[in-house]
Amino acid sequence: MVVVEAKSVNSCTGQLSLHQKIDGQWTTVFSGIPVTLGSNGIGKTREGDGRTPSGIYKLGSGFGTTANPGGLLISYTRTTKQDFWINDPLSLQYNQWVSYAGNPNQRWKSYERLQQPLYKYAIVLRYNDDPPVPGKGSAIFLHIWRGQGKPTAGCIAMSEQHLLKLMRLLDPALSPAIAIGISG
After folding, report:
1. β-strand pairing of 177-182 with 2-6
2. How far apart are CA 118 and CA 120, in angstroms?
3. Is the pTM of this model over 0.90?
4. With contact defined as beta carbons under 8 Å apart, do 30 and 51 qualify?
5. Residue 168: left (phi > 0), alpha (psi -120 to 50), or beta?
6. Which of 32, 44, 46, 157 could form an SS bridge with 51, CB 3.0 to 4.6 Å?
7. What is the tens place of the pLDDT at every residue in 96-106?
8. Residue 175 near residue 57 (C-beta atoms within 8 A)
C-alpha cells in the first residue's frame, strides 16, 4: 500500500510512504518521500479542477519515454509520439490510453501527450476507470516532478530517484494500491 498524506485538503505538497503486509502485519518499507500534488490540493471532483483525487485506488502499469529501467515487476510500456491519454469528456475514449498516428487536434478537444519529460517514468493511478465517468477526472499518474513544491494538474509527482525506487518495489501479485488523504 502506497500512502500519500497531505496536511490539508488545500495542500499541494505531501509525504509518500510504502507499506507491505507480511504475516498479517503492516511493515513500513520506506517513508518520508516528499511529493507534490494538484495545485488546488486533494479531493478531485471534476475534470480540470487541479486536484489530486483522495481515496484508495489500484495502481496500474508503468510507462515512460525511455527504455524499461530494469528491475520492475509491474508491466512497463515505452511511449511514442503516437501515445495519448484522452481527457475529452465527450470522447468514447475518455480516460484511456490511445495510440493514434493522425492529428490528435482533429479527433479530441483535450488530451495528454505521453511523450513528455515529466513522464520519463510514470505509473498509472487507476482513478475513474471502471467504467470512466465523463468529466470526473482523467490522466492521473505518479510521475517525475518539475521540482520540489511545484504542484501538478492533479497527479502525484516526486523525484526521479524516488519514483524509480517505488516502481521497483511494486509487485502486481500483491495488488498494489494507493491511499491519498489528510495526515493526522
Report:
1. parallel
2. 6
3. yes
4. no
5. alpha
6. 44
7. 999 999 999 99
8. no
